[in-house]
Amino acid sequence: MSNFNSDDSKPFADLAQSFAARELTGKVAEHDRFPFGGFYEDVLKKIHEVGFLNAALPVELGGAGFGIEALCAILENISEVDASPAGIIFTQALSQKILMAAGAGKLAATLSASDTAVKASFVAFPVYVNPASTDTLPVAQNIGGDYALTGRIELLVLGNLARQAIVGARTGQGPDYSFFLVDLDGKGVEKSEPVFTLGLHACPAVDVTFQGARVQLIGEENAGPVYFEQVLPQMNAAAVSISSGILRGTYSEALAYAQRREQGGRPIVLWSEVAMMLADLSIKADVAAMCVCQSCRELEQKQIGYESRVCAAALHVSALACEATVDGVQVLGGYGYMKDYGQEKRYRDARMVQALLGSVPMKKLAMIRRLSEIGTNSI
After folding, report:
1. Residue 7 to residue 266: CA distance in whole angstroms
2. Per-residue model confidence (pLDDT) at position 1
3. Looking at the 3D structure of the chain, how many domains does it have?
4. Mean of the per-residue pLDDT values for the chain?
5. How many CA atoms lie within 13 A of 249 on its CB side?
6. How many C-alpha atoms does 230 have within 13 Å on its Cβ side?
7. How would you classify the pairing of strands 189-191 and 139-143?
8. Which parts of the chain have pLDDT scores under 50?
C-alpha cells in the first residue's frame, strides 16, 4: 500500500487498494493483452459503480466530490497494481475539469451522469499532448454560428469507448485554440481501431479523422489555453500519483521476489548487489510518495510558483519511475521480461505516463517560460 495516508485521503486509499486487490490482482496480464485480447468491461462497470469515474466532479454536479487529494490517493493505489485503469480515471477527470474550467459544469454533469451506462458516461480526450505545443491541431470553421471540424487527432484516449470527446482546434491563424465537444458517432468522424501503444494497453486510444464534423464550442473561442493552464496543476499532481503507484508496485514486487528466490544457498535479497538495488527502489518510492503529498499541499496553499513546483514534481517522479522500472526488471532477472510478472508492463507503462499532458521536452520548456514570468519557483 502507498505511504499516502493522511486522515482525509486514507479512506479513499483503502477503497482503491481493496478494489485493486479484488478486481485487478492476478488479472493484469490478461487485461494487458488488449487490443489483441478481450477488454475488461466488467471492471470498468465496477469502477463506475464505486464513483471513481466521477471523482473529480463536485457533489452539486452529481459527482463523488472526492477532491484532488482523494483522487491522487485513488490513482496511486490502483497504479500500484495496474496503471491502465488509473489512466482511464485520469482521462475522465481531465475531461471533466476542462468542462468545469470553461463554465460548462452542467454539461459535465449531464455527460457523466452516474445513472447512465458506463460507456455513455465516458468523455474522450487526447491526454498525451498539450494542445498549445502542437502545430497539427484540427481546424474549426464557423459556419453561421455552427462549427465544422476538419483535421486529425492522434491517440484520442477512450475514443473507442466514449460517445463524446473534447478536442482542441484552431479557429484562425493565431496560436490560440478552442475546445470543442464532438459526437464520435456523428457524421464526418472516422475512428481507427485501438492503437497498439507501448504501454497502458487497457487504457485504449484511437486516431480520429474529422471531415466537416459538427461540433459544439466549449466556453469562449480561443480560450483553450486558459482552460488548460487552469487545470494543469491538478492534473500534474494526478500524474505524479500514477507514477508513484508504478514505482511502489515495482519495489514491492522486486522485494517479494528477492526474498523468495534463492541463489548460492541463500535468498538473493542477502546479496549486496541486489540489496543495494532494492534500497535505491525503496528510496525512490518514498520520495515519490512524498512528492504526491507535497503536490496536494501546494494545490491547497496556492503560494506563488506552485504551478511550476507541481510540474517539477511530475517531471521528477515520472523520471524516477522510468529509472526504477529498469532496476525492477533486473532484480527479477530473466523473469523480469516475462508477461507473467508485472515488471515489464510497469517498464512500458511508466514511459506512457511520462508522456501525459505532453512530451517531457515541451513540459520543461513550458516550465522555464513560466519561471521567467514569475522569477522563481521557491516559496
Report:
1. 41
2. 52
3. 3
4. 94
5. 33
6. 14
7. unpaired
8. 379
pLDDT of res. 184: 97
- Nine-digit cell at 233? 496543476
pTM over 0.85: yes
The enclosing domain of 182 has a CATH number of 2.40.110.10
Task: Return the percent helix, strand and coil in the chain, to nearest 5.
Answer: 55, 15, 30
Helix (H, G, I), strand (E, B) or coil at 140: strand
For residue 335, what is the DSSP state?
A: G
Q: What is the DSSP string of 142-199?
A: EETTEEEEEEEEEEEETTTT-SEEEEEEBSSSSS--EEEEEETTSTTEEE-SPP--SS
Pairwise CA distance, residues 157 & 360, whole Å: 19
Count of residues in the chain: 379
Quick one: pLDDT at residue 117?
78
Strand stretches in 262-348, DSSP E? 262-263, 266-267
Q: Exposure of 104 by Cβ count < 10 A (0-12 exposed, 13-18 middle, 19+ buried)?
A: buried
Report how far residue 210's alpha carbon sits from residue 188's, in angstroms, rounded to the nearest whole number. 6
Q: Using CA of residue 171, residue 177, residue 180, residue 185, what is the dihedral sign?
A: positive
164-169 vs 123-124, strand pairing mode: parallel
Give the containing element (helix H, strand E) for 298. helix 272-301
Range of the domain at 192: 124-222
The phi, psi pair for 204, rounded to 5°, reads -70, 155
Asked if residue 109 and residue 97 are part of one domain, the reply reads yes
CATH of the domain at 304: 1.20.140.10
Query: CB count, 10 Å around CB of 38?
Result: 10
The tens digit of pLDDT for each residue in 72-107 reads: 999 999 999 999 999 999 999 999 999 999 999 999
Q: Are 67 and 116 in a shared domain?
A: yes
Q: With respect to residue 3, please indicate whether it lies within any of the assigned structural domains.
A: no
